[in-house]
């Protein structure tokens, strides 16, 4: 009888266990009922929506140079703030074969837009652009273009003119020094505008030019500035990427005019002002055009002070108020779109009329400028 009872208990326990397992399986089946496919599709759609544009930048000098590449990189940082863009840059890329390699490597990584920011990148950009027709290329300061390559620059000569006004007013020796990179139209045009501004304030002043044939070489730039100081120049300006000429001026106890960015921190006792770039507005406008499909190749953009791309840094405390007033009045005219910097009559170094009275130099003439105005001491070679 006891055996029968034990068997009955065992069989009852097994029945209960089977019932429990059965009860446990049912909820699992109910949890698996919702379809997983819609969740996967939603995640894929979210990834597509969040995919960012890829924008690349190629720089000729270090971004920490406080000069040209630094100003471009500030523009890149403004693009990043848009939130839908991933950016990459390569700095200190020599012009020529090295730049072609760097541009091509960037293109192979499926960038949507590539900015090549130095004059010597022009031919490499055109060449690589033909290999990657689906990518938008923007080349700075050149003149060649194609179906997917446009060029761009800013009217920095407007800023040069204003800084020249300051320099001309502050000089006591009537000799201004200018440390220049290469004798190309961009640089020559800037020297001419600077000279015209200086002579507006002081008709007796002359601008002495020394070429370094480099964009970025702090030691060479400083030596060039010292040679101008030895010649009696008491204001040193530059078309170079480092603040070395500013430092040379301060060490000599004279004034200086910077370029690319506000260089006052490098020579606070010497720095009168700087001709500065503000690439942010232009780069944001370009990125937005590529994103919404309105960007076009084969174009040339030359942005001005009215566009906010070029400006001058705040004038130093050593600049008299009456000088500041005149410079700011001239700036207001440029911001309003009234650019008469290269309005005739303007003579060349030989004293010949190069721009007749009653005419204003056309953009094509300015972009191809290879001659110096009256008042410049130096050669265009």
From TrEMBL:
Record's Pfam families?
Answer: Bmp
Q: Which InterPro entries match?
A: ABC-Purine-Binding, PnrA-like
Q: Does the UniProt entry include the keyword Signal?
A: yes
UniProt keyword list: Signal
Q: Does the keyword Cell inner membrane apply?
A: no
The record's Gene Ontology cellular component field reads: plasma membrane
Name the chain's protein.
Purine-binding protein BAB2_0673
What is the organism field in this record? Pseudodesulfovibrio profundus
């Amino acid at each position: 009888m006891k055996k029968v009872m034990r068997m009955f208990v065992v069989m009852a326990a097994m029945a209960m266990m089977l019932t429990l397992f059965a009860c446990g399986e049912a909820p699992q089946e109910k949890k698996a009922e919702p379809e997983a496919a819609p969740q996967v599709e939603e995640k894929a759609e979210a990834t597509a929506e969040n995919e960012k544009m890829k924008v690349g930048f190629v720089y000729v000098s270090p971004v920490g140079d406080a000069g040209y590449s630094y100003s471009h990189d500030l523009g890149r940082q403004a693009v990043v703030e848009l939130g839908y863009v991933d950016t990459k840059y390569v700095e200190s890329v020599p012009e020529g074969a090295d730049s072609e390699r760097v541009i091509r490597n960037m293109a192979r990584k499926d960038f949507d837009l590539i900015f090549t920011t130095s004059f010597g990148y022009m031919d490499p950009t055109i060449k690589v652009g033909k290999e990657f027709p689906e990518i938008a290329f923007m080349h700075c300061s050149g003149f060649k273009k194609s179906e997917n390559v446009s060029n761009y620059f800013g009217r920095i000569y407007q800023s040069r003119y204003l800084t020249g006004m300051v320099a001309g007013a502050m000089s006591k020796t009537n000799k201004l020094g200018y440390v220049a990179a290469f004798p190309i139209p961009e640089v020559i045009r800037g020297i001419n505008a600077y000279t015209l501004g200086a002579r507006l304030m002081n008709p007796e002043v002359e601008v002495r030019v020394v070429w370094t044939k480099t964009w970025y070489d702090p030691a060479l730039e400083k030596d060039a500035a010292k040679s101008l100081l030895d010649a009696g120049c008491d204001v040193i300006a530059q078309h170079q990427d480092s603040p070395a000429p500013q430092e040379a001026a301060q060490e000599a106890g004279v004034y200086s005019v910077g370029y690319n960015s506000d260089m006052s921190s490098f020579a606070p006792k010497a720095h009168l002002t700087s001709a500065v770039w503000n690439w942010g507005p232009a780069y944001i406008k370009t990125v937005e055009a590529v994103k919404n499909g309105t960007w076009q190749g084969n174009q040339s953009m030359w942005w001005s002070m009215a566009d906010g791309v070029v400006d001058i840094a705040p004038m130093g405390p050593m600049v008299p108020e009456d000088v500041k007033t005149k410079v700011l009045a001239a700036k207001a005219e440029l911001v309003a779109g009234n650019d008469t910097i290269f309005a005739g009559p303007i003579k060349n170094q030989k004293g010949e009329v190069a721009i007749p009275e009653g005419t204003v130099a056309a953009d094509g003439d300015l972009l191809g400028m290879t001659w110096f105005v009256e008042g410049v001491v130096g050669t265009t070679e």
